[in-house]
């Protein structure tokens, strides 16, 4: 295929690339011809979109159906304060056009799923995984393997990150590294566990670097290696990722079509969505406050100690979720217990744990402290 | 054999250390040693049958133990065992 030519304006704009021996005019024309799909316009997607568009990647696709929230701004540098409440793809489009009007942007304002993934992916050379949940990570991996498209992977948690390149011609895939996802709830999301704002900047720029190297065909790819990033220790190290001959998608090829990834990951929901249904008894904050005032219920707060300093429930027994099973003896069996957390997800798990331990008078505070602040006590800050 | 176990932050809090010395002739014995000293950590490193989880990868030096006999992988003096659980944040 003939590479596109560069206009005089582009030659000037990309001059610091053009004078780089390993990029040059031909490399810049490869970037212009490249089609890169970004999954997610969040923490990882932000630096990815900024740097790949600045670098002159000719066609960028962006999948995201989220709306900018004020809590995103601490790390999602693609979006600004005035974008709060608007779709992320809208602020992304505005920002990318400002950085580089030569970029052709295609946006997909839809959740990625088994029905649409192959259809969206097939038009791209490289897919970059910047999602925030396990079902979508397995979906992206499988779709990339099935279509033979490299998957530039990055993922973060608190102060640590991982990056690699999966699904290259002979390279391993994400399932070769992690054959199965952890059970839902074992690994908290960024919304539940927190994340250092600059960390997705580090990991996302590494993904952008790997993407550009793949397009240019230069350097040593992270394919076959996993880069482990420890921001607190200021440590970067790589370990080997081997192609597993028993991998059901890239080894034995048992998986020939996309599956139900929600079911595969055992999760009733995607990501940190607070509007989740766990099928446990619930009570609204308004009702709970009324019953609490009459002394009819006890609130058990399962959040972490540092969260209690931000916003509080009145009169609680505080036991972090991770200690609940060990400290179960501290809770009375003969009282109505209302389990509470930030958004209602962890407390729903707590209700399930107590039910499994024989408690019958337990319910979940719907919406957690966020809804408690809306309905009962607006004097406290949300987080 | 003495070896060093390296934990990510998510697990380090269960042992109050990011790295510490463990002893054993196989990776399984290193993990058992850590699990005996820190039971809460133990349940995050191996399942109730004592087998590794599919979502926690162990690296003996730079090599994934799955391709070297799993928990049966032989340990040499001074080896480094790094635990890398799956994370999904983005
Ligand atoms: Zn594979």
Main sheet of chain B? 5 strands, mixed
Q: Give the full name of the CATH homologous superfamily of the largest domain in chain A.
A: NAD(P)-binding Rossmann-like Domain
CATH class of chain B: Alpha Beta
Count of domain modules of chain B: 1
Given the structure, what is the number of helices of chain A?
A: 15
**Class per helix and strand makeup of chain B:** alpha+beta
Beginning-to-end CA distance, first to last residue of chain A: 51 Å
Structural class of chain A: alpha/beta
* Share of residues in strands of chain A: 15-25%
Low-confidence stretches of chain A: 269-276
Mean pLDDT of chain B: 95
The second-level CATH architecture of chain B is: Roll
Distinct ligands: zinc ion
Quick summary:
The complex is a heterodimer of chains A (383) and B (90). With 383 residues, chain A is an alpha/beta fold. Chain A has 15 helices and 13 strands.
Tell me what you see in this structure:
By secondary structure, chain A is an alpha/beta fold. Helix content of chain A is 33%, strand content 17%. In chain A, strand 1, helix 4 and strand 2 form a beta-alpha-beta unit. In chain A, helix 4 runs parallel beside helix 5. Chain B is an alpha+beta fold and 90 residues long. Chain B has one domain: Beta-grasp domain (Ubiquitin-like (UB roll)), CATH 3.10.20. Chain B has 3 helices and 5 strands. A 5-stranded mixed beta sheet of chain B has the order 2-1-5-3-4, covered by helices on one side. In chain B, helix 2 runs antiparallel to helix 3. The chains are: A alpha/beta (383), B alpha+beta (90). Chains A and B meet through strand 5, strand 6, strand 7 and strand 8 of A and strand 3, strand 4 and strand 5 of B. The structure holds zinc ion.
Question: Key features?
Answer:
heterodimer; A: 383 residues; alpha/beta; Rossmann fold; Oxidized Rhodanese, domain 1; eight-stranded mixed beta sheet; five-stranded parallel beta sheet; 13 strands; 33% helix; elongated; B: 90 residues; alpha+beta; Ubiquitin-like (UB roll); five-stranded mixed beta sheet; binds zinc ion
